[in-house]
C-alpha cells in the first residue's frame, strides 16, 4: 500500500510548529534578555567596589568572565526572541489567511510569509 504525500495549495497554510502562547513567551524572553543583560553590563562597567576593576583601573578576571557571560546570554536571548518573533508572525499570517484578509496570498504552505519570514 503506497501513500503519497500531497502538499496543500500555497494559499492554505499549515499551522506553525510553535503555538501562539509559546511564540509570545519566547519573544518576551528575548526582550527581557535585552533589558536585563544591557543593564547588567552597564552596572558591571560602573562597578566601583573593586571587583570589576583593580586599583589601577584595569579590568579584572571577574569583569571579563561576567562580560563574557552577559554577551553570551544576550546573544542566546536574541536568538530565542527571534524564534518567538517568527512564530508570532507565522500565527498572524495563518489568521490573516483564515480570515481572507490582506496578505493572505503571501502565505506559503508552511505558515510563514512567502519571503521566508525575513521582512
From TrEMBL:
Keywords: Membrane, Transmembrane, Transmembrane helix. The chain crosses the membrane at residues 24-41, 61-85. It holds the Pfam family SCO4848. The keyword Transferase does not apply. Residues 99-119 are annotated as: Disordered. InterPro entries: SCO4848-like. It comes from the Bacteria. This is Integral membrane protein. The lineage of its organism: Bacteria, Bacillati, Actinomycetota, Actinomycetes, Kitasatosporales.
Amino acid at each position: 500500500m503506497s501513500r503519497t504525500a500531497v502538499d496543500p495549495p500555497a494559499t492554505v497554510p499549515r499551522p506553525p510548529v510553535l503555538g501562539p502562547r509559546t511564540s509570545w513567551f519566547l519573544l518576551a524572553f528575548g526582550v527581557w534578555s535585552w533589558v536585563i543583560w544591557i543593564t547588567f553590563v552597564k552596572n558591571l562597567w560602573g562597578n566601583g567596589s573593586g571587583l570589576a576593576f583593580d586599583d589601577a583601573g584595569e579590568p579584572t578576571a571577574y569583569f571579563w568572565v561576567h562580560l563574557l557571560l552577559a554577551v553570551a546570554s544576550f546573544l542566546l536571548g536574541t536568538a530565542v526572541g527571534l524564534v518567538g518573533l517568527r512564530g508570532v508572525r507565522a500565527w498572524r499570517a495563518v489568521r490573516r489567511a483564515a480570515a481572507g484578509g490582506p496578505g493572505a496570498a503571501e502565505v506559503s504552505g508552511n505558515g510563514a510569509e512567502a519571503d521566508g519570514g525575513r521582512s
